[in-house]
Write a structure and sequence with these properties.
single chain, alpha+beta, Nucleotidyltransferase, domain 5, 2 domains, seven-stranded mixed sheet, five-stranded mixed sheet, 18 helices, 38% helix, 21% strand, globular
């Protein structure tokens, strides 16, 4: 039985996980790396530190007694979207990568919108100009660091940079290309119209390949460094959200995935390019050939809980044990935490506000509130933010037959119970527990011929485990609480930019 390796180049670290053809996890290892904030609202990472993390994760995974590198049939990659990795003539980074959560490019987004036109931009790319996307970052480097831009010869995204390091081959796969704001999502190709309008050379952009397409092979040097076998095929892979969808089996109409990781998403499969004319949710090309997904994004889902953990000192920075204690305390607090409501905009917000200046708020805080109330408010605030995306996706008329949950937050019965009650739907937890890394491994299996299609790979390996039902006794409370939550952002919107300037 062949083994399949999935690499997930995330924001906090790289996960290497290997699976068998039945979808069982054989071994998994994660290596962390730093995140840099040179100024408030900025976020950068060193591509070389990604690479060291990838090497360490692979070596750690291969150290497991159950893994033989010679049995790995193929490798797939997933990774954080939108990060701008600019390479020079020697294919070395000209500067740190500006990553997805960076918010410095408001002026460049305005320039793109005014130059291209808001309606035309959404028509071509399926999205408005947002600070997190790649194109504004490239324009920022051109304007603010012309010496770096002058050296730039290629633009890659994080996981495509890692594929280059593994194989010495340059390419970008389609689901990640769709998040650059330079890609015509309907035509499935780089938009010459956008490149011309923004004055960017087409030579900066690599060839676009399929997610399950073999795009190179592990080089002998990398084999020596990692313990992999030289010549092992490496497929295109996918953006983290596309791979997360594949890893939960959301590869046909009627299925929706809700993910709570560092960020939070509500993602629906679509067989055609449905585009919200207001640009409140994203439309991207899926890893499934010819398909798309619509997605609402919340910037700080699991990040909000981690921030609360670190800020209040919940017994150190341990993993699931600390989170279980936090959510256990929150479970003893009644819904709506005695009038405490949390706006989880710690890193600005995308859906539905598209506002990089938005900030987190505890509203209604009083002397009766304890840390358990704060935790409950955070869990509910993130659930309300995901309902924003849920409601917009329902407006698009997409069929919704089943909602599957994934990400670290999905392990919490307390949090998922709140989410099910806020959305008013049954949530399905599946056998897939390794997130985007599992989706990347399934894409690798299709590329290696283990399965004939992505749908077959999902049907073979993904099984429902249990369901979380909404608590109908709190439906009215949460409906009222969500309505109040919706009123807070408009009331505070004009104050957020002033608060940012005060800092």
């Amino acid at each position: 039985m062949a083994l399949l390796l999935g690499l997930d180049v995330g924001t906090t670290g790289c996960k290497a996980a290997v699976f068998d053809e039945a979808g069982r996890t054989i071994a998994s290892h994660t290596e962390e790396y730093p995140l840099y904030h040179p100024q408030p609202g900025w976020a950068e990472q060193e591509p070389e530190e990604w690479w060291r993390g990838v090497v360490g994760a692979i070596r750690g995974m291969l150290a497991d007694d159950g893994v033989d590198a010679g049995e790995i049939a193929a490798i797939g990659l997933s990774g954080q979207m939108h990060g701008a990795v600019l390479l020079d003539e020697a294919r070395l980074p000209v500067r740190r990568a500006i990553i997805w959560s960076d918010g410095r490019t408001t002026a460049q987004c305005r320039t793109i919108t005014e130059t291209v036109g808001a309606e035309k931009l959404i028509e071509l790319t399926g999205n408005p100009a947002l600070e997190g996307f790649t194109a504004p970052k490239v324009l920022w480097v051109r304007e603010q660091e012309p010496e770096h831009f002058a050296r730039a010869r290629l633009l890659l995204l994080p996981k495509d940079y890692i594929r280059y390091r593994l194989t010495d081959e340059i390419a970008m796969e389609i689901s990640d290309a769709a998040g650059t704001l330079l890609f015509d999502v309907r035509q499935g190709r780089w938009s010459g119209e956008l490149l011309d309008a923004l004055g960017l050379p087409a030579s900066l952009l690599p060839e676009v390949r399929g997610s399950a397409e073999v795009c190179g092979h592990v080089t002998p040097d990398v084999a020596k460094l990692t313990g992999l076998v030289a010549g092992t095929p490496v497929v295109g892979g996918g953006a983290d959200n596309a791979c997360g969808a594949v890893g939960t089996g959301v590869v046909r109409a009627g299925l929706v995935a809700v993910s709570i990781g560092t960020s939070g998403t509500v993602l629906a499969h679509a067989d055609e390019a449905r585009i919200d004319p207001e640009g409140r949710v994203h439309t991207f090309n899926h890893s499934v050939p010819g398909a798309y997904y619509l997605m609402g994004v919340h910037q700080a889902a699991g990040y909000s809980l981690r921030w609360l953990r670190d800020t209040l000192g919940f017994g150190g920075k341990g993993g699931d044990v600390v989170y279980e204690r936090m959510t256990g305390e929150a479970a003893d607090v009644p819904p709506l935490a005695k009038g405490l409501v949390f706006l989880p905009y710690l890193q600005g917000e995308r859906t539905p506000h598209m506002d990089a200046a938005a900030r987190g708020v505890f509203f209604g805080l009083s002397g009766v509130h304890t840390r358990a109330h704060l935790t409950r408010a955070v869990l509910e605030g993130v659930a309300f933010s995901l309902r924003d995306s849920w409601e917009i996706l329902r407006e698009q008329g997409l069929p919704i037959d089943e909602v599957r949950i994934t990400g670290g937050g999905a392990r919490s019965d307390v949090w998922m119970g709140i989410l099910a009650s806020v959305l008013g739907v049954e949530l399905v937890r599946t056998s897939a527990t390794e997130g985007p890394a599992f989706g990347a491994a399934l894409l690798a299996g299709v590329g290696a011929g283990v399965w004939s299609s992505i749908s077959e790979a999902c049907e073979t390996t993904i099984r429902p485990l249990d369901t979380i039902q909404p608590d109908t006794s709190v439906t009215e409370q949460y409906t009222e609480g969500y309505g109040f939550y919706q009123e807070l952002y408009p009331a505070l919107k004009d104050l957020f930019p002033h608060g940012v300037k005060l800092g």
